[in-house]
């Protein structure tokens, strides 16, 4: 009987640890998406310039804001939903993994086809790799608990 309670207690600690790591993972993703949302809606021209874009029309500006701010807002909203609603947590982690993997592979493709990037690109790729591996680990662990 005592072995069963020890095992159950250990399982609760594992679940609490996974819940904490999942929440931290989602908070960090939410911070990135919220940061992009705010920064690119308010300061699109200087940020575009910093990564090599030149905006020549209001149509280009609208599209740039939509992709860098609007899309990030939508993804961030879903990530937030996973943070506050445990039933949606796995889906929010999966969205974070899928988006990080998509960003990473698009950057990698560009590096192979068009040549080297800059510090921003390499830093982004590093964070995307960490996000993918941590997110996949979390999804595997959550699926087993």
UniProtKB/TrEMBL annotation:
InterPro entries: DUF4345 (IPR025597). The chain crosses the membrane at residues 24-46, 66-84, 91-109, 121-139. It holds the Pfam family DUF4345. Keywords: Membrane, Transmembrane, Transmembrane helix. This is DUF4345 domain-containing protein. It comes from Leptospira sarikeiensis.
């Amino acid at each position: 009987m005592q072995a069963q309670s020890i095992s159950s207690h250990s399982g609760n600690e594992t679940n609490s640890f996974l819940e904490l790591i999942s929440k931290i993972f989602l908070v960090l993703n939410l911070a990135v998406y919220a940061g992009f949302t705010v920064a690119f809606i308010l300061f699109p021209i200087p940020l575009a310039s910093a990564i090599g874009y030149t905006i020549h029309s209001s149509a280009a500006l609208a599209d740039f804001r939509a992709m860098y701010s609007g899309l990030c807002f939508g993804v961030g909203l879903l990530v937030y939903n996973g943070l506050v609603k445990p039933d949606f947590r796995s889906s929010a982690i999966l969205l974070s993994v899928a988006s990080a993997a998509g960003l990473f592979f698009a950057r990698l493709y560009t590096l192979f086809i068009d040549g080297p990037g800059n510090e921003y690109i390499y830093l982004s790729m590093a964070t995307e790799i960490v996000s993918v591996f941590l997110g996949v680990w979390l999804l595997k662990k959550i699926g087993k608990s």
